[in-house]
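Async update (no meeting this week)

Hi team, since we skipped the sync, here's where things stand on the single-chain job. The sequence we agreed to prioritize is pasted below, unchanged from the tracker. I ran it this morning and attached the output directly underneath so nobody has to dig for it. Comments welcome in thread, and please keep replies under the output.
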Amino acid sequence: PDARSVVLRGWGNPFWRPGTEEDLAAPAGEFRVGDELEFSSPEHRHLVAFTGRITAVDDVEIEGFTLQRVSFSEDLPDFVAPGIIVANADEVGEFVMRDCTVRRNLGQGVRIKTREALVENCLFEDNHGNGVWIFCDADYGRESISAQNVTIRGNKFRGAASAVRSTVGRKPPMDPDVFENIVIADNVIENCGPTPLNLQSIKGGAIRGNTIKDSSDDPFLLKGCSGLVIEDNRIFPKP
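Output:
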């Protein structure tokens, strides 16, 4: 509407109603004065290109749908236009999982799609998918903000596609350096595929002090990562 405001809408869910991507659903969640919104860029859908604090929120009726007009204290960049993904950083919840067992699950042991997360002293055993999957998707499922400050420590992983995996989006291209400060430390990993730590798009963090058994000679697969410290891991490949 003007240089300092946008009208936000939701998006049809492709899993429930294929072909309704262009509807005018109300945006999910709440938007409050003082919340910080993160805007993507047209080139990199999963990377934050601009953040702004909300100064006003008003309902707007458009074609029978109640959408929300959100205003900011400064002008928005020129690239903020229809199709840009918006996430509310102040709606992101912290997550703690401690002393739990996940055994023989057809999917993942747990999927991390939030910030300030801790998975500690858990057992993931004989799961069909990954033990821990760090994930976000801005294009197809519009699923979650990018994870930050995630610590996975002191766990046991036995029998999984990967012990820990991180991926961005369900479709290429992959944006690099999306997840920030991911620490994978002091875990025991046994028989979790040839590449137990299959990591994409991580910026900063550490893979430290893990014991990895029955893997390939090189148990780490890193794509689009930077600033990851890998040290003091004990690796026992399959004979």
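Quick observations from my side:
The CA atoms of residues 198 and 221 lie 5 Å apart.
The two ends are 65 Å apart (CA to CA).
Reply here if anything looks off.
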